[in-house]
Request: fold
Amino acid sequence: MDLWIELLGDPAYRHVLLNHVPVTGLVFAWFALAWAVFDGRRRGTTFFALSLVAVASASVQPVMTTGDAAYPFVFDSVDGDGQRWLDHHVWLAERWGRLLLVNAGLALGAILLGGFRERAARAAAGVVLVTTLAALAAAAGIAEAGGKIRHAEFRLEDPPIHQEVGRLRPD
Reply:
């Protein structure tokens, strides 16, 4: 039990545990929402699928929070290319991670709209279906860069260079 407490106290470990939720969750949520939008017979299916989208998209917040907390330790524990991939991963997360939070908000808005106007709910779900693809692409790009931090075997190209290497490290 002490090992679990120690591991869960480590932000890098928590980040590794949580970082699959937005990507994998959005894949399943997108398929559920596509089914609901194109089937269109059951309103409950649409609300369930929109709820999946909202939860999977919103899960990016704890992923980003634990990633920020883990940055100094991870930066110091990887090689030079790993550090550059880490900075690229952070750069992508800072620019595109918030798209997932916007997507969560749109999904919640579609749920609320569906409670008041059933006809508009299907159109709103269609919009969320499209924005979920964009959010999934952003999450996949962020995750791909993250996978290259500690796995040199996945580094088939050099990391992009960013001006502020190690910028999240405390002085």
In short: The mean pLDDT is 86. Helices lie at 2-8, 11-18, 20-39, 43-58, 60-77, 80-116, 118-150. The two ends are 34 Å apart (CA to CA).
